[in-house]
Each structure stands twice: as structure tokens, then as C-alpha cells.
Amino acid sequence: MELLVLYVGFILAAYAVIGNDVIQTLGTFLTSNNKTHWTVLWAYASAILVGTLLYGWCFYNGDVSYDRLDKIPLPETLNWWYLIAPLSLLIITRIGIPVSTTFLILSVFSSQQLIEKMVMKSVYGYALSVVSAFVLYLLIAKLFESKKSIDKLEQSNQKKFWIAAQWGSTAFLWSQWLIQDFANIYVFLPRDLSVWVLVGSIVVILLIMALIFKNRGGKIQEIVNQKVNTRNIRSATIIDLCYGLILFLYGNYNSVPMSTTWTFIGILAGREIAINYLLNNKQLKNSYKLIAKDFAKVNIGLAVSIFIVYVIQLFKTMP
């Protein structure tokens, strides 16, 4: 029974985490390359994933989470109620709510002290993302995000450069996101993976990614598509680079897991405010509505996470 919970938990967590979170990193990539066949995009992302996974496995003594699970040991007994968290995440993802997988999945296995650290790191990450994106786009919006500059890009030879730059920024961001979120995917498996478990897990993850790429992201993708100019390849490149740098500089500051969802929503929020302030005659009403809607969704996810952790704690105390 315990082995069944372990492997079913991993599969459910992998599908739910990737389905919910992958759009943060590959959403703009999928949107701006909508004319490229999904198998090409999938193969590119898969190669980066396998490389990042193998690097962590080799240099962290079999721990593919890059030590993010160091203070989250695998329970001695895995009962069925641990599956409530990934099942709930799966349902929420299908609805289209960008819940924080870090809170929902890892909180079930974590101490209260570590949960508090995860929440604080995520809140600071959100604030840093909003401010950083807002300042950045105040400086570059007129140059890169105006309709005139985008039309000029379409008619120039610069597009090839930006295509290459976007694929490069996607590779950087995708690797940094994986370093943060491998913990959410692999929390059900032993911290020192054997070769066969590693290979099997890679096969499962790549199959899940193929399904998501074939569906072009699914319901969660709407969060990216609703934002200004995200279909433009230059805009997508700048978003990815900004997001990747924050994960690299702030996310790797320590090994405490953090919500990449909150960071992503923060970047889109700061960007949306700056662009509408500079380019749309300070018409911020629609921006605030979108931002409030996204922020409400992630807070609903946090509330659901807390409720599920509470329910599982009740099961733990039952005889």
C-alpha cells in the first residue's frame, strides 16, 4: 500500500505541478511560437529538463531537488491521505486557478516553522517581482512595447535575433524554474534516487509534458494570453529574462522552497501597470482588474492549501 501511495503520489504531483506551473516559464514561449509544431518545442524543453535533472542528481548525491527537500524528510509511513494534496491540485489546475504548488504539495510534509519561511520568502518574492518589473518596464516600454516599435520589428531583420534570444532566455528561465520546483514534483520519492527510479521518473515527466505541449498549455495559459503583447516574441523574451534573473538571484539565495507562481504573477502585474501607464494614456482600470483577479486566484490557492494541510493533520491524529 505504501509503495502504491509513493508512486501514485509522484505521478499525480508531477502531472498537477507541471500542468499548473509550466505555463509560468513556458507560457510566453508557447504563445509567441504558436506557428512552430508542438513536438519541436517539447523536444527543446525536454532536453533542458533532462540536463538540469541529471546535474542535480550527480552533484547533490542523488537529490534532484538541489537540497530543497533537505529539511523535508519522506514520512516513515505514507498513508492514502497524502494523495489529497496532489489530487486537489489536479482539480484546481483543471479549473484554471494558478495555485502555488509549493504551498499545496510541500506544506503537507513540512514543519510549521518551514511553512512560515516558505510563505515569507514567497511574499517577498512577489513584492520584489512587482517592483522590479514595474521599474524595468517604465524604462523600456516605449522602446520595446509600443505598437509602433512592434510593427517596426515585424518589418526588420531583427526578428531572427529576437527569435534566438527568446529561445535562449527560455532555456535559462526553464532551468531556474526546474531547480525551484523539482522539490514539488519529487517530494513523494526517496531523497537519493536510484538510477532506475530516476529513469522511470524522467519518462513519466516527459510524457506529461508532451500532453501539455500538445494542448498548448490548457486552461492556465489564459493568464498569459490576457496580458498585453505576450504573443510578441520580443516581449516574451524580456518577460522570461526578468523572471529567470529573479529566480536565479533571489530563489537561490537559500534552499528554502518558494512559490514561483507568486513571483510570476508579480512580474506580470508590474509589467501590466507600467505598460498601461506609459502607452495607454494612464488607463489602469483594466490592468487593476486583471491583477486583482490573478492575485485573488493565488490567494484562493493559498487558502485551499491551508485547508488541505489542516485536513491531513486531522487524519494524522486519528487512531
Automatic annotation (TrEMBL):
Signal peptide: none annotated. It comes from the Bacteria. Coiled coil: none annotated. The keyword Transmembrane helix applies. The chain crosses the membrane at residues 40-60, 80-111, 123-140, 161-179, 194-213, 233-253, 259-279, 300-318. Keywords: Membrane, Transmembrane, Transmembrane helix. This is Phosphate/sulfate permease. The lineage of its organism: Bacteria, Pseudomonadati, Bacteroidota, Flavobacteriia, Flavobacteriales.
